[in-house]
Structure formats: structure tokens, C-alpha cells
Amino acid sequence: MEKIITQEYENDKAVTAKVRNFFLKFHVGSALKAANAYKKKGFAVTQVFRYLFVLVFSNRSMYMDMLTGRSTPEFGKDTVYRFMQSLNINWIRFTTTLAARVIKTLEPLTEDDRVNVFIVDDSVCERNRSKKVELLTKVYDHAKMAFRYGFRMLSLGWSDGNTFVPVNGILLSSEKQKSRINEAKAVDKRTSGHKRRMMSMTKATSAMLELLSEAKKASIKASHVLFDSWFTSPASIHAVCNLGYHVIAMVKKSPKMHFRYNGTDMPLTEIYKKNKKRRGRSKYMLSVIVEVVKKGKSIPAKVVFVRNRNKRSEYLCIISTDIDLSEDEIIRIYGKRWDIEVFFKVCKSYLRLNKDCHSLSYDAMTAHVAVVFTRYMLLAVEERNATDDRSWGELFLMFSDELADISWIHAFHLLLDAFKNIIADRFCLTEKLLDELFEKFMSSIPTEIKQKLKTA
Known about the structure:
Layout: H1 2-25, H2 28-34, H3 45-54, H4 62-68, H5 77-84, H6 91-106, E1 117-126, E2 137-141, E3 146-159, E4 164-172, H7 192-200, H8 204-217, E5 224-227, H9 234-242, E6 246-250, E7 259-261, E8 264-266, H10 268-274, E9 284-294, E10 297-307, E11 315-320, H11 327-334, H12 339-349, H13 362-387, H14 395-399, H15 408-418, E12 421-423, E13 426-428, H16 431-443, H17 447-452
Parallel strand pairs: 1-5, 5-6
Antiparallel strand pairs: 1-3, 2-3, 3-4, 6-11, 7-8, 9-10, 10-11, 12-13
Helix pairs in contact: 2-6, 3-13, 6-13, 11-15, 12-16
């Protein structure tokens, strides 16, 4: 028994040290100030945020933590509620500022020619037990093939092929009033709370552009934006390119979505029929140059048609506005998109995304998402430190090889696996492969942190 208690104490000390180092190294307090998080009186906002941050390591909710007296903060629960429900804190700016600092420490670990990317995707954030949540809506969960009460958590992340860092995100309600269960409460239009409520009721593609704009303002370096077919349209491709990024994305084989080929607008299925396919064991069947046309403006793009080895009548379409890339390189870079799937699973399974916040306030839920994003940044930093000798700096940086980028063959196998789950034109990984990627990430987390995190 004494050995168990001693080990538990040592783990607590190790985790506390890592959290303290993370907060000091990346100046979490100044990031909160940059997001307009100031105290009016009483306790520093960094104290309150840190208390919320470390709750996941005790595997208790705030209510149970204070009730059992496991930790005894100097402030009460009302202080925490006021902090989370603040209308003035810009949580998108906070996570973007913090992510920029984390990414800045990762960039020297790889060579300058490494392709760093932004990744956009969404996942269902469930609130099934309450129908009085502000801006609550019904969302369709493609994984469970059923409707759920909750939100779509639209997330923007950054990846260098080894480490995924969440940059910012927004809980999307519905742009259609009839689809919303509850409306937003009336708040001061000058506050960040009003702006995020308005943003939550816009289309996902419009919100995506807002998130990308915030990342660009923070000077986060990335050359390409990756997303799946859900977000791909001529309008979104033009909008992202106008921000200064190239797009690599999956495209639906929809008869309603046209691209200009040889001077004629046609869907990808018609373009596919008009061209001779590559023979033999080629990894892709066809590659063509098209024009993405919107409001009289056109952008050249390369479309790669990838075959399904198991069913030759099936194929995937990947579009890239960077036409100088080879077909293999387009497939390889797109393989980085699945980093965000691991992020979603870690947030839900270990970081209590759907469990810890029971507030009816949209502001409080947004604050909780920011806390979860910050927790993942800590795990991402620790995972990179555990696997990359260059993170030690100095001589290790000079004489250690950089971690290899995602290989082409790995990316291709990920793409082939997408054929196995085709639900409502959304391409997902199989549960088995997602578990493999998930376990690979979690196995690199320091043992003392992993022992404190328990599956929700």
C-alpha cells in the first residue's frame, strides 16, 4: 500500500511540474490577457484557468472536486462560473495566440522545405441530456448515423506531419432558425460573446474562413489547407486561395458541382469518363488539369482520381490548387488530414470534451472547448519531446535527424482505407485504423500523464 501511495504522489509531482513548465514556457497568462481576460477584483484569471485545466488529471468534475475536498482552491465555484461565462474573453484569439507560440517552438525541429498545413474538420459535440442549452440544435452524427442534440465543433489545426496542434475552433449551431432548439440570449453587441454567437449561426464554410483569418493574423506559417469533401466547393476553394493558401481537398462526385475542362463546365464524373485511364498497377487512375470557376474568376487546379483496389468501379477525387505538385505528393500531403481525427478522439476519450461542462451558457461551453484545446497542446508538446531528440536543443538539434514526414505509402494506405466507410459522401477512417493512430499517439505520452488520464 505504501508503494502505491508513494508512486501516486510521485506521479502527481511529475504532472504538476509538466503543467507548470507548460504554463511558464508558453506564457499562458499573457495569452489570456491578449484575449481580454482580466480580473476585475479577487483572483488572477490564470489561477482559475489553471484549476480548470488540471481537473482532467483528477478524473473528477469541478463540482465533485470541490465537494470531496480533493483540491481546495482559494476561490469558490461562483468565481469559476463568472470566468467561464464572461462575454469579454475572446477564446478564439486565446487558443490562436497560444498555438502560435507552441508552433514556433516546433518549426526549428524540421527543415525549411517541410510542408506545414492547416487542417479543417468538424465533429459532433453532444448535449443530449438538456434541451435548454443556449443555441442548441440537432446535428447528424455520421459515425453513429443518427441525429443528436448538440453542436458541430468546427476545428482548425496545424500539422507538420508529426505533431498536430489545435489552433482554434467554434461550436456551430444552425444558420436556419427553425433548426435551432433554443435561441441566443441578448447580449451587448460590442462584446466577443455577441460575435461568437453570430459566428455560430453562419455556414461552416464562412466560419472556416474566420478561423483561417485569425490564424493568419497570428503569423502561423502554413502553405496548404486540407479538408474533406464536406467543405469543398468552387466558392470555398476561391475564398481560401484569396487568403493566400493552396487547397488540397477531397471532392464529391456530385453532378451539381462543375469544373471547367477543355473549355466546358462539367462534373468530375463526366471528366472521368472522357479520359483514358492509366493501366497496370498504377496507384492513381487519372490526373487532369481543370479550372475552378466562380463569378467569372478561374483558378487552375489538378484533380487526381485514386482507384479502390478492392472495387475497381470506385474512386476518390482529390483536388489541389498547387498544380506544380506531383500526384504522389498531393496524395502524401493529403494524408496529414487524418491527424485531426486522432485529435477528436483524444478530446472525447481522455480530455472530457463531452463530459465536464454542463452549463446552459454558450459562453461557458466555448470556454470549456478552449480549455480542452489547451490540454491537447500540452499532450502534443509532451509527445513530441518524447519522440524527437531534436527537442532537446543545441547539439541534439545539430546532430540528430529530424523526424520523418508522413510517407507516401502511409498516406496512400490511409486513403485506401477511406473507401471502407463511405457515409453520406463523407470519407472516414475505419474504427480499427483510427484506433491504431490513436494508440500510437497515446503511447508516446509520458507515463505519469497517461496514468492520470482515464478514459471517459
